[in-house]
Amino acid sequence: MKSYVCLAAGFCLLALSFVPLNGAPGKSEDVAQVRAAIEAANLKFGEAVRKGDAAAIAALYSEDATVLPPDSDMIQGRQRIEASWKGSLQMGIKDAVLTTVNVSGAGDYAYEVGKVLLTIQPPGQAAMQQTAKYVVVWKKAASGTWQLHVDIWNSLPAK
């Protein structure tokens, strides 16, 4: 569903409104099924982090995915995303536990809002934990699997 918002200066912005997945015309997949698929992918993500496997992390992204890490340039494409995750793992990311807060979307796209608990242990230092919040736009591949397509996150304040 598309709608346009026109500003006083005469500029119009296209705003995309998501219809809940279970309300999308012609789609039998409901939000519970999509959420389950996303949560399963998130478990694979965490397993790949614990194994230090940047290639397995990158395989969860679409070929033309975009990652928007905090305080960094955008990273586009699966190869660059793999290189970025390889660097992050080498800097000490040891675990990532992702918790889905909300899922919505329409058709072949869904978005997830969530939180992640990271365990970070830089070489020669004690392990520490950091929490972050994230939004992921998921894209359904031709194979039927859901892939991370746009991924953005930033830290939560320390408690």
The CATH architecture is Roll
Helix content: 10-25%
Placed side by side, the strands forming the largest sheet appear as 4-3-8-7-6-5
CATH class: Alpha Beta
Order of helices and strands: EEHHEEHEEEE
Structural class computed from helices and strand pairing: alpha+beta
Shape by Cα distribution: globular
What is the CA-CA span between the terminal residues?
40 Å
What is the count of structural domains?
1
Arithmetic mean pLDDT: 86
Low-confidence stretches: 1-20, 22-28
How many H/I helices?
Answer: 3
Largest sheet: 6 strands, mixed
Round the Cα radius of gyration to an integer and report it.
17 Å
- How many beta strands in the DSSP annotation? 8
CATH third-level topology: Nuclear Transport Factor 2, Chain: A
| Beta-strand content estimate | 35-45%
Question: Which helices and strands, and how do they pair?
Answer:
Elements: E1 2-6, E2 12-16, H1 31-51, H2 54-58, E3 61-68, E4 75-76, H3 78-90, E5 93-106, E6 109-120, E7 128-140, E8 146-155
Short descriptors:
single chain; 159 residues; alpha+beta; Nuclear Transport Factor 2, Chain: A; 6-stranded mixed beta sheet; two-stranded antiparallel sheet; globular
Describe this structure in words.
Helices cover 25% and strands 43% of the residues. With 159 residues, it is α+β, with helices and mostly antiparallel strands.
